[in-house]
Specification:
By secondary structure, the protein is of the alpha/beta class. The protein has 12 helices and 13 strands. The strands form 3 sheets. An 8-stranded parallel β-sheet has the order 2-3-4-5-6-7-8-9. The chain has a 3-stranded antiparallel β-sheet with strand order 1-10-13, with no helix packed on it. Strand 5, helix 4 and strand 6 form a beta-alpha-beta unit. Helix 3 runs parallel beside helix 4.
């Protein structure tokens, strides 16, 4: 399917299997904007007070559903000593909580409560394997002091985490595992080497950028950081290989503009969700025009990456199986540009999107009978 000359594209609704919607006033601002073509969003639990119980997750789900009632929010728990095997059994019965997120301590936003000893949680993983919850991995190791045996920096933190992935898969072969926001060719190969219970998500911003983009612009800075051109190429090719080993997760992560520009170390995260489907199609179109991927990529592979593969892995219904789901979305070239920023109604919160000012295809929802 040659995307380079199309002026209009119809697709099934996108499923975003990794998104940060924050809390408080930021949640109130960004959640109603989850219009990037998604009818399903898997929500991350790393709030300032992390989501570590079923009760917290259900309360958060209620708040999000009030703000965006047409989106199905899938919730997650934050792996923490409070997440016991009893909580896992309760979570599995909700049909709202679908995964548990493992953050190595210190690797990203609000990860200070994260995991320092993975084996401590082996009983929890065993319970998850039994009841069918997904283990979601932030696949990086935190920076170490220079005298440590292995020094982890932003460029090798993912590669150095991969032995942990292999160990978890070996010790819990029936546990469904997602290596989130894969950013390296080594990460791609690791997911491919594992069995069918291991998958990876890929973001829109990693399909667009490299380390040079992150160094030039704080609004491109994220964790895991964008890597080399070779890594980007591996991600693009994996996104359209049609294998179902990889599916879309935006890792959209809004931050107030001040936390990006007025701190010595900028907050990590790119805000993409309202334009995520258009950003993915735009990245693939660019890759085709530059000869990085063939123009003969199948439409099934693109739809699979954006919509079908993730739903199948998480064992949720496809859009055409949902009686209340709109059947498709339409992207059309109309000269729309991503805004320079979005602001709350009182002006107290301002968020700068990824690729601000750049042209994207305009998105519209289509009724089933169109």
């Amino acid at each position: 399917m040659d995307l380079t000359h199309l002026t209009k594209i119809d697709l099934p609704p996108t499923a975003d299997f990794h998104c940060h919607l924050r809390e408080g006033a930021m949640m109130e601002l960004v959640t109603p904007l989850t219009s990037g073509g998604c009818d399903t969003i898997f929500v991350m639990p790393n709030l300032e007070k992390p989501i570590v119980s079923v009760t917290q997750a259900l309360e958060y789900h209620q708040k999000l559903s009030r703000l965006a009632p047409n989106v199905r929010f899938l919730m997650s728990l934050y792996l923490h000593p409070d997440v016991t095997t009893d909580q896992i059994e309760l979570a599995a019965k909700t049909n709202i909580i679908f995964g548990v997120k493992l953050y190595p301590a210190g690797v990203t936003t609000n990860s200070q409560h994260g995991v320092r000893d993975i084996k401590r949680y082996y009983p929890v993983f065993a319970a998850m394997q039994k009841v069918g919850l997904v283990l979601n991995l932030h696949g990086e190791l935190a920076n170490c002091t220079p005298d440590a045996a292995t020094v982890h920096d932003s460029m090798n933190a993912e590669s150095n985490f991969l032995p942990q992935l292999f160990n978890l898969h070996k010790d819990f072969p029936d546990l469904r595992i997602v290596l989130e926001h894969v950013s390296t060719k080594e990460g791609i190969e690791a997911v491919k080497q594992c069995g069918p219970n291991v998958r990876g998500t890929i973001t829109a911003h990693h399909l667009w950028g490299t380390i040079e983009d992150a160094e030039r612009d704080v609004f491109n800075f994220c964790k895991p950081i964008m890597k080399t051109p070779d890594d980007r190429l591996a991600l693009i090719r994996a996104a359209v290989d049609g294998s179902s080993k990889f599916f879309f997760g935006s890792d959209s992560a809004p931050h107030p503009i001040q936390s990006k520009t007025e701190k010595e170390c900028a907050a990590a995260g790119c805000f993409t969700q309202p334009w995520c489907t258009s950003l993915v199609i735009g990245a693939l179109e660019r890759a085709m025009s530059l000869g990085w991927i063939s123009k003969d990529v199948s439409w099934e592979a693109i739809e699979g990456f954006l919509s079908h593969f993730g739903r199948t892995f998480y064992k949720i219904a496809q859009p055409e199986q949902e009686a209340t789901s709109k059947h498709s979305i339409r992207l059309e070239r109309k000269g729309e540009r991503i805004p320079k920023s979005i602001k709350s109604s009182d002006g107290t919160i301002e968020v700068v999107p990824f690729r601000r000012g750049e042209e994207v295809m305009t998105l519209a929802w289509l009724n089933q009978d169109l």
